[in-house]
Design brief:
Elements: H1 3-15, H2 25-44, H3 51-66, H4 68-71, H5 77-92, H6 94-98
């Protein structure tokens, strides 16, 4: 996905619904930590990504982190940020490393 498309997605999700109220600092901090984990994963496996992919991902992460307080003020904050985290997870595959799997 091109950088312009990522900007559009982030901006669209950030403005999709009216603001709900004061952001929950605990929620904002939790989400912030999750995005930092994705950034750390990108850094750790930098050699497997193109410079362009890293640059675009870092720019998107920066925009998201700058807008985190606003995103967390939305009544659909968990849905919006969850979508963004899933998009990053599709690239970093971080959940495959961190989620314990239960086999029956």
């Amino acid at each position: 996905m091109a950088a312009k498309n990522r900007e559009t997605i982030v901006e669209h999700l950030a403005t999709a619904r009216p603001l709900f109220g004061a952001p929950c600092q605990c929620l904002a901090e939790f989400f912030r930590e999750e995005f930092v984990k994705h950034h750390q994963c990108l850094e750790q496996y930098r050699e497997y990504y193109s410079d362009r992919a890293i640059t675009e991902a870092e720019e998107a992460l920066g925009r998201i982190l700058q807008q985190m307080e606003e995103l967390c003020r939305r009544d659909d904050a968990c849905e919006i940020v969850g979508q963004l985290l899933r998009q990053f997870d599709a690239v970093t595959k971080l959940s495959a490393f961190s989620e314990p799997r239960t086999f029956h």
